[in-house]
Amino acid sequence: MKCLHEGGLSDRIHLIGPVCSVYSDVVYHTELTSLFYTIVSGSRYLQHETQENKLKREASAGELVKMAESRVHNQFKLTTKNNVRANVGEEVTLPFHLSPDTSAVATTIRWFKGTECIYLYKNGQVTERSGYEGRVSLITQELKRGNVSLRLRDFSWSDRGVYICQVIHGEQKEEAAVGLWNRGEAVQVLASGSLYLQCETHKDKLKREASAGELELKMFKEMMNQLEDSNHRLGEKDKLLGEKDKLLEERDKQLEERDKQLEERDKLLEERDKLLEGKENELKERRQEVEERRQEVEERRNPELPFKHGEMSDTGSILAVRRRNSKDLPPFMGGETSDTDPTLPLRRTNSMELPPPSMGGESSSPDSPVSPK
């Protein structure tokens, strides 16, 4: 077998061809294998992805949306006049508007007088510098239409000057200036709004930013105070709720005690009902006994009632039957019977009456003795 460096080019081609084909097959299979494992690992990655990573992905998507919105807002411009005039004591409006009409509700609006920030609107919160409290305000109903004009009440001689409006949204910052002067006052050319910004120095801009930072710090402190007040109120409400819960617990306990008392009363009433039932049964029995005794008394008081089957006397007369096992005496039946005639009237036994009066005369019997004369 010849070596590569000894043979010609044709011999080298014959040797390199099969090697290249084998290498290409290996690379192809390697690429398929890596693609397969990539797909498998991707599905497993989503299955094992943590909640924190998901939140990070959502936050990143939100940032992209905000960037897209800021690009849309990059189209607006801030328009105004060069100068506005008013009399002392009047209410004056410094007109500023976003062009084209763009909502300014979600923007940050700063108002400056020269290098001093006098009014700040941010996240729906408003802060005013001392000396301007209650005197400056935005037309909040017009913010959706892009109207960011400032109202100034009780215009005074000290309010004269150049006012700058600054609107910030995302990375965009637009500002414009207007001069506020008394009517009939001569104004220098440099006092107009457009020229003032062109001639403003970098030092003045830094002063304005520092003043705006002071007002934002004031806003932050006010918000913290509001939060403390709200937390204090919430704490008081929690205390009140705790007291109410205690009262409710006490009431629940009282209700439970009342329920127990009612159960005990129900038991007592049941026992009384049973006693009443027993007494009613006793009364019924007593009524029956009384009725029986009443019938006996009626039988004794009415001798004409038919006699019950009784015993025979020694002479053969039927005597009234006395109730057996009774301790009461039989009704009055008259005296003893005659020795000779049971049909003769009876004489009351042990009677206290006198004997019948003497009839006088002789007896009908011939053998009877004659009464003495």
In words, what does this structure look like?
With 373 residues, the chain is of the alpha+beta class. 45% of the residues lie in helices and 16% in strands. A six-stranded mixed beta sheet has the order 2-11-10-5-6-7, covered by helices on one side. The radius of gyration is 65 Å and the shape is elongated. Mean pLDDT is 75; it is low at 1-20, 307-329, 332-340, 342-354 and 359-373.
Helix and strand topology:
Layout lengths: L8 H39 L3 H23 L3 E4 L2 E4 L5 E3 L1 E4 L8 E6 L2 E7 L2 E4 L7 E3 L11 E3 L8 E9 L2 E11 L10 H7 L2 H100 L72
Parallel strand pairs: 2-11
Antiparallel strand pairs: 1-4, 3-9, 5-6, 5-10, 6-7, 8-9, 10-11
Subcellular location: Membrane
Organism: Oncorhynchus mykiss
GO cellular component, one term: external side of plasma membrane
Keywords, please?
single chain; 373 residues; alpha+beta; 6-stranded mixed sheet; 3-stranded antiparallel sheet; 4 helices; 45% helix; disordered N terminus; disordered C terminus
How are the strands of the biggest sheet laid out side by side? 2-11-10-5-6-7
The largest sheet, given as strand count, sense and whether it forms a barrel, is: 6 strands, mixed
Which segments are poorly predicted (pLDDT under 50) over 5 or more consecutive residues?
1-20, 307-329, 332-340, 342-354, 359-373
Q: Quote the beta fraction.
A: 15-25%
What is the helix fraction of residues, given as a range? 40-55%
Radius of gyration: 65 Å
In total, the number of strands is 11
Shape: elongated
Q: Give the ordered list of helices and strands.
A: HHEEEEEEEEEEEHH
Give the N-terminus to C-terminus distance in angstroms.
213 Å
- Tell me the number of helical segments per DSSP (H or I, 4 or more residues long): 4
Q: What's the assembly state of these chains?
A: single chain
Structural class: alpha+beta
- Average pLDDT rating: 75
